[in-house]
Amino acid sequence: MKVKSEELRQEIFRKLAEKCPKPQSCAFCGHREWLVVDIITEIREFYEKALSPEAKRMPVIPIMCNYCGYMVFINAIRLGVNLELLSEEEVKK
Predict the structure, then answer these.
(1) How far is CA 51 from CA 2, 9, 60, in A?
(2) Which of 90, 92, 93, 75 is closest to 12 using CA atoms?
(3) What distance in Å separates the CA atoms of residue 39 and residue 54, rounded to the nearest whole number?
(4) How far is the C-alpha of 73 from the C-alpha of 52, rounded, in Å?
(5) Bridge partners for 72 per DSSP
(6) What DSSP string runs through 15-61?
(7) Which of 34, 36, 33 is closest to 2 using CA atoms?
(8) How many CA atoms lie within 13 A of 43 on its CB side?
(9) Per-residue pLDDT of the chain (93 residues; tens, 9 = 90+)
(10) Quick one: which of 35, 41, 81, 93 has the fewest CB in 10 Å?
(11) Is the CB of residue 33 less than 8 Å from the CB of residue 50?
(12) Average predicted confidence (pLDDT) for the chain
């Protein structure tokens, strides 16, 4: 879901700066310019035959290397982001 709330966007940047004060080099190309993608997505537990409503889900924030596009995903809960700041419109989509 797209992060439209400026308060949530600022909280994500603040938490990332707290946890990782020095930008790390990209594991793929070595550059240090990163873009925090303005969506929160999820990773689901895999079930062999189909999607299951019982599957565990993990909210993640994608971060992309601005040079090569390599992406990493940061667990939004572990980062400490208040997901309740998502607006009702964002949650419904």
Answers:
(1) 23, 30, 19
(2) 75
(3) 24
(4) 22
(5) 63
(6) HHHHH-SSPPPPTTT----EEE-SB-EEEE---SSS--TT--EEEEE
(7) 36
(8) 10
(9) 777 778 888 888 999 999 888 889 999 999 999 999 888 899 988 877 767 777 788 999 999 999 999 999 999 999 998 888 775 544 444
(10) 93
(11) no
(12) 85
Amino acid symbol at 25: S
Q: Which two tokens stand for residue 2?
A: 């797209």
46 token code pair: 């895999």
Here the tokens at position 26 are 């990209």
Q: H or E stretch including 65?
A: strand 57-65
Within a 10 A sphere around the Cβ of 8, how many other Cβ atoms?
A: 20
